[in-house]
Amino acid sequence: MSHLLNRRRFLKQSSAAALSLPFLTGFTRKVAPSDRLRVAHIGLGGMGTQHLKWFAGLPEVEVAALCDLDETHLAAAQKTLLGLQPDTKVQLYSDFRRILERKDIDAITCATPDHWHAQVAILAFEAGKDVYGEKPLSYSVREGQKMLKSLKRHDRIFQLGTQIHAGDNYHRVVEIIRSGAIGNVHTVRLWKPGAPPVLGPANYQEPPSTLNWDFWLGPAPYSKYTPERCHFNYRYFLDYSGGVYQDFWSHIADVVWWAINPQNLTTVSAKGEVGEGIGNTPKWIDVDYQFDNLKIHWTTTPPNVLGAANRGIGAYFEGEKGTLLCDYNTREINIGGMLMNDVETVPLSIQRSPGHQQNFVNAVKTRTQPESNLEYARQMTLPMHLGLISWRLGRELHWNAKKEKFRHDGEANDLLSRDYRKGWDWI
After folding, report:
1. 309 has pLDDT over 70
2. Residues 307-313: what's their mean pLDDT?
């Protein structure tokens, strides 16, 4: 018990000291092994391997376990870790629940396909683990609600993997918008060009012996194995994700919710086409949202505003006094016809991030929610789910923001959740 108390005291003191620096961009220190955060990584494809590299590079973190349903991913991740930490004694798992049973694991990262995000996180919360989870937050609206309820019940920490949130550009955009430099914002245009790949025809076959396909499907509807549905391409099937739109929404909508916190969504209207091939997510999708005194438009084609066509993703804020256009790393402000990339009279007012993963580590130590916390991430993610529902039904929908349900529309409300496959309903 004395060791645990000393460890808690060290974690709180070290993080409090780090967070007291007003515009910290990064730091390193030597940390005693007994005072390091023990982290397990669940889902080790492309983004999961990035999680592994990021956290392995933090001196306050010990990578304690790796988990994947594909033995080839697991072996590759172990090799990567051994290259970074030759003396590691990390344990390997194919079932993430065995990791959650371990009392010595403090936190997990989750980079599974979207349809597993909520179950992994909620079971981790129930097991007393904190979670760094990849975007999108969840597969459905109801899952996000369950995640927030569970996090609060078990007093856990959660960070959504919107790594761009930590960058200086988003911080500065938020400062400028909040300062009123372009006036009250009445319209925001978001865009992300790009159609899904044309997949197929389906090559149905026995799954590889190295992959537990039944577990991979988990709560999703059963399907015979075909390589076109698995791993990276899963995002182009509505059984598991929502395509390019769902993949990129959080990256660019994040700066909007951070800057102006849209309130009281009332209507959602989407149009678009289904992708070609065996995938069934949008080939293109345009969505119009009406909030209190604010319109937000998502388009697959860049809007007809100066500078948008040259950016592969972007946000365009229209205010009473001017406009601000931004992507991940750049911004352009137009006030009274004068173009600039900054407003020097707007002071720095938001503490800079120590790094997205370091922010999570600090939050775990101090027991304070991080920048991309679950409550914030859920509000930012929810309109994306509603846009997909409007697209699937092909009509405008009316939303009750207080009750978080559609008004007088049972068909639309049925799509706020789905029944899990028998035997895989664990939450």
Report:
1. yes
2. 96
Tell me the torsion sign for CA atoms 106, 112, 114, 115: negative
* CB distance 92 to 78 below 8 Å: yes
pLDDT value at position 34?
Answer: 57
Domain parsing of the chain, residue ranges = 33-164, 167-352+374-415
Determine phi and psi for 132, rounding to 5 degrees: -110, 105
Alpha carbons within 13 angstroms on the beta-carbon side of residue 414 total 5
How many CB atoms lie under 10 A from the CB of residue 126? 15
- The tokens describing 59, both together, are 């001196």
Report the C-alpha gap between 84 and 243 in whole angstroms.
33
Which 3 state secondary structure label does DSSP give 416? coil
> Above 60 in pLDDT, residue 303?
yes
pLDDT over 50 at 23, yes or no: no
Buried b (16+ CB within 10 A) or exposed e, 22-54: eebeeeeeebeeebbbebbbbbbbebbbbbbeb
**Can you identify the CATH homologous superfamily of domain 33-164?**
NAD(P)-binding Rossmann-like Domain (3.40.50.720)
Question: Does residue 60 contact residue 84 with C-beta atoms inside 8 Å?
Answer: no
Question: Quick check: pTM over 0.85?
Answer: yes
Read off the tokens for 42.
Answer: 């669940």
- The yes/no answer on whether domain 167-352+374-415 falls in CATH 3.40.50.970 is no
Exposed, middle or buried: residue 422 (CB in 10 Å: 0-12, 13-18, 19+)?
exposed
- Residue 210 in contact with residue 76, Cβ under 8 Å? no
Alpha carbon distance 167, 25 (integer Å): 9
User: How far, in Å, CA of 17 to CA of 362, rounded?
Assistant: 10
Whole-number Å distance between alpha carbons of 40 and 111: 11
Regarding beta strands 185-191 and 267-274, do their DSSP bridges make them parallel or antiparallel, or are they unpaired? Answer: unpaired
List all residues 6 or more positions away from 213 whose beta carbon is below 8 Å from its beta carbon.
207, 225, 230
